Amino acid sequence: MTQVGHIVIGFIIVIAAIYLFIFVAQRLIARQVAKLTVKLQTLKDIPMQERLVKGRKMSLMGKTLDDFQENEALYNRIATTDFDAVSQQADQVLVAAHGFNVWQTNQELRNLKKQVAQVARNIDTVNQGLTDLERIDEEHKQAVQDLESKYKELRKTLLSQNFIFGNTLDKLEDVLGELEDEFAEFARLTEAGDHVAASEIYESLAMETNQLEERMNQIPELVKDLTKTIPNQEEELQTTLDQMIEQGFTFQDNLVENALMQIEADRQVALETLKDLTLKKVQERLVTLHQAIDQIYQTFEKEYQASQIVQNKLETLREYLGHLQQQNQNLNQLVGQLNQNYIFNHDEENSIRDFARQLLQIEKNLDDIRLGINKNEVVYSQLTDQLMIDEKQLDQLEEKQLNLWESLNVLPEIVQTAQNKVELFIEAMRKIKRRVERQGLPGAPTAYLNFFDQVSEMLNKLQQQVNAPRVNVDDLQRQVSIVGSDLDNLQAATNDLLANATLTGILLHKANQYREYPEVGQAVQNAQVEYNQFYNYEKAVEVLGQTLDRIESGTTDRLREQNQQNRLF
């Protein structure tokens, strides 16, 4: 096949493809036009004329009539002009679709779609306007019936139950009358078909009617509270106040009387406020009134409870006071008795006199309270704190009395214990002396003898002190402690003295085993001088021990330990 043949075949294929594309596009456009035509027919079939005829029969007026006529005109234009225009546009699209100008055909199709959509929107506008008109017409007619029935019921309530509304009745009737006048205008506009103007009235009318109903529901309870409940409580409070005053109660600065007068004044103000139907202010004032009333009840309860506490406390503290006064006398007698045998160092007599002064002041406080009660001059709630203070002071005084009583009663026991210790000290000194004497020593160091004499002298003084006609117990206890400590030291010094003296003899015996050593002989001579002439047994042990330890290491410590073991057994 020649090159020309190939070109011809290619051209034929292109032409066929273009034709196929145009054919398919025509069919698609025709199908879309058919759908739009069906939609247009659906819009035509809507029974809008019947609804417009029904609307014209409503006898509309004012803004409502203007809105209806605007919707009617819009639909008439759609029915007489727009439907035909859309049909013609559909025909033009179909004609254009048979040509080869695809771009122009699509433009015409877009215009057709816009026209159908606009017609649909306009019909929706008319349809919604008629729906709103029918709805509001029905609502207003129903509202007329409902409000007329409601106002009749409210008027009936005001007439048949006027007593529950108290001083608000005239104002409620005025409000209801105004609402009935507004309702008459609303009913007239609704009947005339001016629903726009009727809606403006109905909005406020419905709100004000609800407010009136709410007020009529709330007012009876407020009236009852202000005309019955609170006056009854005022009367009860006044009766209680009179009874309590007659029974001897007193209230500070006429607190309750002033509060009751203020409550009554506030109640009258609340009634006047209620008359103007300002219910929120009335409710706020009622809260304040009830709080004030509750406060008075609490005051009565507080004073009554305080009176019970005060009466019981007075009786209890009187007994308590008498007990402590008697106890103070007993203390005074005990001090007088013990003063013959003991010297006091803690100002016990002044303490007892101070107790008596404090007890006398508390007695005066209790007498003043009792006198004030008898004269009806006291506020019970103001007395409880003072009585608590008096009770606490009595507790403290009792504790001090008991401590003093115990410290006084233990004096004979302390002295007896000291006497027993002195006897033990004397026996201990005798034993120390016998131990030293039994050892048969040539003598004792001067320091030891001086210490022995010092302890002996202190013990003699202590013995005289413990047996004196009047004993200074504090000083006695202090001296017993000192002598006991010195005696322990003397015992230790004696043990060391006797141990060193014995150890010296043992070391001398051990030294005989090393006589061949010249230094041992010299050490023995030096030790004998310390032992026999200076009685320095510790030095004698040191001289012998050092020499023997150089010859035989550890000799002194071993012999000392054996000596200690022998002394234990």
Automatic annotation (TrEMBL):
From which residue to which does any coiled coil extend? 102-189, 314-341, 380-435
Instruction: Tell me how this protein sits in the membrane.
Output: Single-pass membrane protein
Kindly report every residue range on the membrane side named Cytoplasmic. Answer: 26-569
Q: Which parts of the sequence belong to the UBA domain?
A: 232-277
Q: Which residues cross the membrane?
A: 6-25
Q: Name one GO cellular component term.
A: plasma membrane
Q: Which family does it belong to?
A: Belongs to the EzrA family.
- Name of this chain's protein: Septation ring formation regulator EzrA
Q: Which organism is it from?
A: Weissella coleopterorum
Species lineage: Bacteria, Bacillati, Bacillota, Bacilli, Lactobacillales
In the UniProt record, the gene name given for this protein reads ezrA
